[in-house]
Amino acid sequence: MLVPDDGTDSEVTPLLIFPYNGNGLEALDCLADGYKLTGFVDDKVEKQGISPYGFAVYSRAAIADFPESRILAIPGSPESFRTRAQAISSLGVDESRFARVVHPSARISPLASIGYNVLIMAGVVITSNCVIGNHVCILPNTVVHHDSKIGDWSLVGSNVTIAGAVTIGENCYIGSGSTVLSRLEIGNRAMVGLGSNVLRSVAEGTTVAGNPARTIRRWV
């Protein structure tokens, strides 16, 4: 059982994770020795208290109650990813308080740039000159090749291959097992379905899926 940090260990950083969801639980495996869980924050009253796994789940009041705790905010799913910006912004957290959590087995080039409030899970490889924006979550075993960019608020699934010089816009969702060819652009708020092979650029607000990926929906 993890308990709230009492601030006595100066070598680790206390951390609150928002919300109490699947990505949040997976983030626990990425903490290594640099962070110690204070608890989760969730808006759903039925989740608050002590979880079945022994973790404390607080209301948003915990953000003020534990001022020394950094914040990792990783909401979002295929159904809700387009509202990630609003959900995270509603916490009212200054950017300096957001955490950057990287699994020890991830390999990140020293020539890459990584933003804040970023979660990078096990086995991820990010190569030279890549730019990973703020509020980005990358699931296990994904490879982001040279000179690619992932915009703010985007979610990238597991076992995704993003080839060289790809630009992924803001508030995107790239489904697990997908491949995006070199030099393509994925527009803001676009979604790539599971296991898709993207051979052409994807317009803003568009959902594509399949091999090769084809448009299945356009959002207003």
Summary tags:
globular; eight-stranded mixed β-sheet; 220 residues; 24 strands; 30% strand; mainly beta; UDP N-Acetylglucosamine Acyltransferase, domain 1; 2 domains
Short structural summary:
By secondary structure, the protein is mainly beta. It has helices at residues 22-27, 61-65, 84-89; strands at residues 13-18, 35-41, 49-50, 56-58, 70-73, 100-102, 107-108, 113-114, 118-120, 125-126, 131-132, 137-138, 143-144, 149-150, 155-156, 161-162, 167-168, 173-174, 179-180, 185-186, 191-192, 197-198, 206-209, 214-218.
Description:
The protein is mainly beta. It has 2 domains: 13-73; 101-206, UDP N-Acetylglucosamine Acyltransferase, domain 1. The chain contains 3 helices and 24 strands. The strands form 4 sheets. Strands 6-9-12-15-18-21-23-24 form an 8-stranded mixed sheet, with no helix packed on it. A 6-stranded parallel sheet has the order 7-10-13-16-19-22, with no helix packed on it. Strand 23 and strand 24 form a beta hairpin. The longest helix has 6 residues, at 22-27. It is globular and about 50 Å long. The model is unreliable at 1-9 (pLDDT under 50).
